[in-house]
Amino acid sequence: MPLAETGTLVAAAAAGHRAVAAFNIITLEHAEAVVTGAECAGSPVILQISENAVKYRHGRVRPLARAAAQAAAEAGVPVALHLDHVTSGRLLREAADAGFSSVMYDAAHLPYAENLAATRSAADWAHAHGLWIEAELGEVGGKDGAPPLDAHAPGARTDPEDARAFVDGTGVDALAVAIGSSHAMTSRTASLDHGLLARLAGTLAVPLVLHGSSGLPDGELAAAVTGGIAKVNIGTALNLAMTSAIRDYLAANADAVDSRKYLSLARRAMAGTVTALIVVLRDAGEPAPVG
Ligand code: G3H
Ligand code: ZN
After folding, report:
1. In the chain, how many H helices and how many E strands?
2. Using one digit for the tens of pLDDT, what is the confidence trace for 61-102?
3. How far does residue 291's CA lie from ligand 1's centre (Å)?
4. How far apart are the first and last CA of the chain?
5. What are the φ/ψ torsions at residue 129 (nearest 5 degrees)?
6. Every domain of the chain and the residues it spans
7. 253 near 234, Cβ under 8 Å?
8. Is residue 84 flagged as an active site residue?
9. φ, ψ for residue 228 (rounded to 5)?
């Protein structure tokens, strides 16, 4: 199946009152696991590579992006490739010829006016190069090892009227909203501000994106979908599955040498996590059209 486009997958999800899952990948094993997990669920999926993952790969985006794009193109379900949490103009410009159909430009840490100006310029560039673009207003905490934001701190929630003006002023195609989730949570104990989500969904015409979804229990993920979230970003849950599979294997096999022994278990564990989370999101939304 040819590489899908993020904009198409998100638009179809939003129109059908469903959500598409977007998983952060760091290694080729992550990408293979996401594809396998989505194939088992029989659902489309988005592979995403963050700026931090690019930094981990010595600042080079193309080796992993091209491998992921190829895995996506050979998948039995529609799979798109997205560049996530970009702050660098240089990396943004590399997105156009590395297989990505979309980018999330992240200036959420800046004051409102600066976020708007920087995001408008990124959106103009992205659209001129055929890329769908997501941005963030109100800061989803926990990025780069930061502690989760105080839920009541200024900027820790997205104001609906600010968001309307931000979307109109920037021309972005989707908006990541701060409604109570936080990045890099290793326990599924977060809860969302469902009243705020309802106000955002009623105010904004663009699809809404949830970040930091690993910290949400199944019921909150399902409620996010029924509340109007159309793209659900998940990263830490995969690393939890991967690391725990490797830790268990090495604990039982202290003299292990062949990395394929534990990476295959890690890949299988991640694929199981992907399928389970896609099923939670799918069961919450309206049934997809058959055929
Ligand atoms: O953009 C990526 C995500 O927001 C993933 O967050 O690692 O907390 O699931 P997470
Ligand atoms: Zn995020």
Report:
1. 11, 8
2. 999 999 999 999 999 999 999 999 999 999 999 998 899 999
3. 31
4. 15
5. -110, 20
6. 6-284
7. no
8. yes
9. 120, 5
In sequence order, what are the residues at sequence separation of 6 or more whose Cβ sits closer than 8 angstroms to the Cβ of residue 127? 133, 171
Question: Is 183 annotated for ligand binding?
Answer: yes
Q: Which residues make beta-bridge pairs with 209?
A: 176, 231
The span from the CA of 17 to the CA of 15, in Å, is 6
Q: Yes or no: is domain 6-284 CATH 3.20.20.70?
A: yes
Dump pLDDT digits (tens) for 232-275: 999 999 999 999 999 999 999 999 999 999 999 999 999 999 99
One-letter amino acid identity for 56?
Answer: Y
E strand intervals along 51-202: 79-86, 102-105, 132-137, 174-177
Smallest CA-to-CA distance from 122 within 139, 108, 111, 141 is with: 108
Q: Give the H or E element holding residue 20.
A: strand 20-24
Closest CA to 61 of 72, 52, 70: 52
141 alpha carbon to ligand 2 midpoint, in Å? 9
The residue to mutate among 183, 229, 240, 243, having the most atoms of ligand 1 within 8 angstroms of its beta carbon, is 183
Establish whether residue 182 lines the binding site of ligand 1, counting it when its CB lies within 6 angstroms of any ligand atom: no
Lookup result for tokens 């021309």: 171
Question: What is the atom index within ligand 1 of the atom nearest the CA of 213?
Answer: 9
